[in-house]
Amino acid sequence: PSGGRSGDVAVLVDQQQRWIAVWSLWRDLYVSFSVDNGGTWSAAVKLPVPVNSAHNEEVPKLLQDAQGRYLLAFSSDRNLFHTRSSYVCWTEDFVNFSAPARISSDALSPLRIIERSDGMYLTYLYGSRTAVTTSRDLVNWSPPTTVRVLSLIHI
After folding, report:
1. Computed over its alpha carbons, how large is the radius of gyration of the chain?
2. How far apart are CA 83 and CA 106, in angstroms?
3. CA distance 34 to 44
4. I need a labelling partner for 117 at 20 to 30 A (CA). Which of 56, 109, 123, 136 fits?
5. Residue burial 108-120, b: 16+ Cβ < 10 Å; e: rest
6. Sequential pLDDT tens for the chain (155 residues)
7. How far is Cα of residue 110 from the mean position of the Cα atoms in its chain?
8. Distances in Å between the alpha carbon of 80 and those of 5, 28, 83, 87, 105?
9. Cβ(143)–Cβ(154) under 8 Å?
């Protein structure tokens, strides 16, 4: 199921070859798992607080990092003024999540999150411009830096 846009569904094959789908539906994010290459799926589960809030969560992106943690980037209007911003949090089990870190106050949505070999995390964002923000600890993020769209072809 989708919230209506193609960016509202993220699928990841994790290190155990399990398929994980996260999607936005009715302002919340849900997860489901498949252990048979997508042949069957577990029942959908609404992600808990602090991921889902009383606001709109959408445009999920997933990554499993070298430590085995699952990183979730998403867009939400959870801030004081209910303007759309991008956030990143992590989990080891899709039950307990870190507090989402605001990575951009601009109305930009996550496009992709990656981990470089040196341990630096990069989240590419899009909207009125395309930008990248970086972090070493998943809590403190650099201000978004505008990048040329052509540079995103290989991500």
Report:
1. 15
2. 9
3. 11
4. 109
5. bbbbbbebeeeee
6. 434 454 589 999 999 999 999 999 888 999 999 999 999 999 999 999 988 887 888 899 999 999 999 999 999 888 777 788 899 999 999 999 999 999 988 888 999 999 999 999 999 999 889 999 999 999 999 999 999 865 444 44
7. 7
8. 26, 18, 8, 14, 11
9. no
